[in-house]
Write a structure and sequence with these properties.
This protein has helices spanning 2-43, 48-84, 87-93, 98-139, 235-239, 250-262, 268-295, 298-301, 303-330, 335-356, and strands at 149-156, 162-169, 172-182, 185-197, 202-211, 219-227. The protein is α+β, with helices and mostly antiparallel strands. It has two domains: 2-141 and 269-356, no CATH class; 158-231, no CATH class. Helix 2 (48-84) runs antiparallel to helix 4 (98-139), helix 2 crosses helix 7 and helix 7 (268-295) runs parallel beside helix 10.
Length: 360
């Protein structure tokens, strides 16, 4: 029962400090961005409500970025102050080990990281899309439906077909090439002069089909007009065919990677982004491994020293993550190695500090 009271007391101090620091840094970030863009909002005569809506959609991705730093500050403003006020000394006098003091922080810190992970994999990419549409309609005040238009489109189907489209305008496409490869060799090609979206499918015109699967038997077929069984996505998705991995949800990015690999394309950048969706939220949990032991050293080294060392460690961690991420994108390391290496390195440092702080 006593341990439960102690756990609740520590967690109450931690979550209070965590949410206050998270909101404070979010406020500073938003205000700084607002001052940078205030001229843009004034020129477009944006209302206060529209600006508030813009930053409401802008905030989720910033919350994910700030979460590890908020966890660190939450530890220092909870455990650090307990140490400074000799409360930790009193607990140690009762025979309570340092591990038992910050054990609840590890349990609930892991829960927070898992919640942020889910948030980062699904909700954050969706808010990026909503922010783009909100900015277009409410801030830039673009009236009417957006006309679908694109040139030089490259699209890959889930069956591995590579589709190249010269031009897309509203519901029509022109100069469409379909390519299918097998074992690195072109086995089928289809060319259509134009196509029209008929509500739920594409109708292609002047279709030329060539099959090269049998080297000694080239087949050719012409259709004046036919329903496409290969291209099934609407014009809106085709216009967004040059995907930026950062704007895709976890499952959408996973499907996109599968399509790339079926077509024989290299997906290093996409895989690094996919694994990074899991890695970055867990940074807040790993920070606890060296944040908690340092917070208990406040009495001996001082709050400022430990706080500064923790901040330095956090930014070093973030820098190493970015370095290994680039190594993964460039192919110097396999994507999963590039993403997990910083975690292993800093987890090792944290475990060393954790064990060092335990009484012998």
């Amino acid at each position: 029962m006593g341990n439960r009271i102690l756990d609740r007391y520590i967690l109450r101090r931690f979550f209070k400090a965590f949410f206050l620091t998270l909101m404070a840094f979010l406020f500073i970030y938003v205000i700084t961005n607002l001052f940078e863009r205030i001229g843009y909002f004034i020129d477009r005569k944006a209302s206060v409500v529209d600006i508030l809506g813009y930053y409401l959609l802008f905030s989720p991705k910033i919350v994910v970025r700030l979460m590890p730093l908020a966890v660190l500050l939450g530890v220092y403003f909870s455990l650090g102050m307990l140490t400074k006020n000799n409360e930790v000394l009193a607990l140690r006098g009762l025979g309570i080990s340092p591990f038992n003091i910050y054990k609840p922080l590890f349990v609930y810190g892991f829960v927070v990281s898992c919640v942020v992970l889910i948030f980062n994999c699904s909700f954050v990419p969706e808010t990026r899309h909503l922010l783009k549409e909100f900015k277009r309609e409410k801030i830039d005040k673009v009236k009417g439906e957006r006309m679908t238009y694109a040139r030089n489109i490259n699209y890959i189907t889930e069956d591995g077909w590579i589709i190249k489209i010269e031009k897309l305008r509203d519901n029509g496409i022109s100069d469409i090439d379909f390519f299918r490869y097998k074992d690195g060799r072109l086995v089928e090609r289809i060319y259509a002069k134009r196509g029209e979206w008929e509500g739920s499918f594409w109708i292609l015109e002047n279709v030329h089909k060539r099959n090269f699967e049998r080297v000694d038997d080239l087949t050719y077929k012409y259709e004046r007009r036919e329903k496409s069984t290969i291209l099934k996505v609407p014009p809106g998705e085709l216009s967004r065919s040059k995907y930026d991995p950062i704007n895709l949800s976890f499952l959408a990015l996973l499907r996109y990677i599968r399509r790339l690999e079926l077509s024989g394309s290299i997906s290093l950048r996409e895989r690094v982004e996919l694994y990074g969706r899991i890695n970055y939220p867990m940074m807040g949990f790993i920070i606890l491994f060296f944040g908690c032991p340092l917070a208990l050293e406040v009495k001996r080294r001082g709050l400022i020293f430990g706080f500064g060392l923790g901040i330095l460690g956090s930014f070093t961690f973030w820098g190493v993550i970015q370095l290994f991420k680039e190594l993964g994108i460039k192919g110097a390391l396999p994507p999963y190695i590039a993403i997990i290496s910083p975690d292993i390195m800093f987890l090792g440092v944290g475990l060393y500090l954790l064990l060092k702080g335990q009484p012998r």
